[in-house]
């Protein structure tokens, strides 16, 4: 709100054409400023693509090397939780996209609602992830000193998984490589979750600012670029879900 | 105020909520499809189908949710070059690893 009054008072002092207060002086016009911000955001996201890409590549290489271990280890993941989480995250991407639209057409109440929904769905995703992590901790499937090979050397000792997949026992040397699977599982979903936590923190800040009318005055760059970040995090999950949960269901 | 609005509208394509609803629903349906596909017995094709669906979902997120379809040529070029470089890096790395022992198994 204070921004729009600054336009009215600020313009004559500049001694040149009136422009929105949010237009920085080193840009020609609002369009150039928005393009520059969008360009920079995409460059940042591409560095993120490379960062996650390294882990995806490692995953594919190790999966190729230690295929039986990766197949049996991935049977430990619950497809129902994974599917539910995918739906939650896609819904949060949708509410975020609607939030960007609300900011563009200056609907403040709509924007606040969309941001709050995105915030809640983000937390729901992390909640479900916590349930899954807890199960891994209880079964000693977290890599480290307490890692247990029991479910892989003696599959029938893990009746819930066994009745669904009827896995054959792995030899000890192959079973040990399930730890590689879980290292990558925790690295990838953990980094993804960290991105979610950062995103949720920024969402909290944005809800606070949006309630004060910050993004419905025509200056939507922040909301728009945050939207890009949030959708990027969604895309990472769109690939993590089939790679970690789905592609080894049968072998 | 009107000046300001005109300036923005000239520079900024507002994507309609209808498109968001269609894309959002398509993403949910495709999530269902990919889970269904994982229950089928297609051998190696299971992984191919899962990744193909994931790529399609990612593309519609990038084009519509992330507005690349409506963005400047600079943005389009940046995204394309970035993803192309990424594919080249990942593709060549995997080709190397997967072909080292070629014919020796």
Polypeptide structure, described:
The complex is a heterodimer of chains A (251) and B (105). Chain A is mainly α. Helix content of chain A is 75%, strand content 0%. In chain A, helix 2 (30-65) runs antiparallel to helix 9, helix 3 crosses helix 9 (178-211) and helix 4 (79-104) runs antiparallel to helix 10 (221-246). The N and C termini of chain A lie far apart (60 Å). Chain B folds into 2 domains: 2-69; 72-105. Helices cover 76% and strands 0% of the residues of chain B. Chain B is built from 4 helices and no strands. Classes of the chains: A mainly alpha (251), B mainly alpha (105). At the A-B interface, helix 2, helix 4 and helix 10 of A face helix 1, helix 2, helix 3 and helix 4 of B.
Proportion of residues in β-strands of chain A:
under 5%
Major sheet details of chain B: none
The tally of structural domains of chain A comes to 1
Separate helix tally of chain B: 4
Low-confidence residue ranges of chain A: 4-12
Total strands of chain A: the figure is 0
H and E order of chain A: HHHHHHHHHH
What class do helices, strands and sheet pairing of chain A give? mainly alpha
CATH architecture of chain A: Up-down Bundle
How far apart, in Å, are the first and last alpha carbons of chain B?
72 Å
The top-level CATH class of chain A is Mainly Alpha
Structural class by SSE content of chain B = mainly alpha
The CATH H-level superfamily of chain A is Cytochrome c oxidase, subunit III, four-helix bundle
Task: Please describe the biggest sheet of chain A, giving its number of strands, its sense, and whether it closes into a barrel.
Answer: none
């Amino acid at each position: 709100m204070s921004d729009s009054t600054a336009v009215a008072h600020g313009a004559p002092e500049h001694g040149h054409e009136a422009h929105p207060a949010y237009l920085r002086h080193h840009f020609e016009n609002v369009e150039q400023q928005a393009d520059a911000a969008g360009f920079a955001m995409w460059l940042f996201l591409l560095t993120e693509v490379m960062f996650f890409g390294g882990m995806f590549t490692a995953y594919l290489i190790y999966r190729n090397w230690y295929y039986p271990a990766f197949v049996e280890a991935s049977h430990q993941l619950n497809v129902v939780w994974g599917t539910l989480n995918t739906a939650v995250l896609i819904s949060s991407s949708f509410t975020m996209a609607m939030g960007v639209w609300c900011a563009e057409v200056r609907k403040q109440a709509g924007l606040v609602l969309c941001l709050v929904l995105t915030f809640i769905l983000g937390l729901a995703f992390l909640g479900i992830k916590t349930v899954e992590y807890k199960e891994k901790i209880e079964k000693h499937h977290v890599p480290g000193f307490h890692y247990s090979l029991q479910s892989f050397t003696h599959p029938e000792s893990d009746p819930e998984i066994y009745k669904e997949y009827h896995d054959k026992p792995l030899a000890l040397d192959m079973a040990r490589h399930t730890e590689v699977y879980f290292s990558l599982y925790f690295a990838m979903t953990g980094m993804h979750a960290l991105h979610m936590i950062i995103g949720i923190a920024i969402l909290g800040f944005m809800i606070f600012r949006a309630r004060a009318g910050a993004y419905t005055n025509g200056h939507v760059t922040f909301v728009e670029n945050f939207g890009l970040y949030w959708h990027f995090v969604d895309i990472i999950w769109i690939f993590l879900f089939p790679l970690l949960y789905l592609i080894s269901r049968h072998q | 105020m009107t000046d300001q609005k005109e300036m923005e509208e000239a520079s900024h394509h507002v994507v309609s909520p209808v498109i968001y609803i269609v894309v959002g629903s398509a993403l949910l349906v495709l999530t269902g499809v990919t889970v269904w596909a994982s229950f089928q017995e297609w051998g190696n094709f299971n992984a191919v189908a899962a990744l193909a669906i994931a790529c399609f979902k990612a593309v519609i997120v990038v084009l519509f949710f992330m507005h690349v379809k409506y963005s400047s040529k600079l943005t389009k070029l940046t995204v394309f070059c970035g993803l192309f470089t990424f594919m080249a890096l990942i593709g060549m790395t995997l080709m190397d690893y997967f072909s080292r022992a070629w014919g020796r198994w």
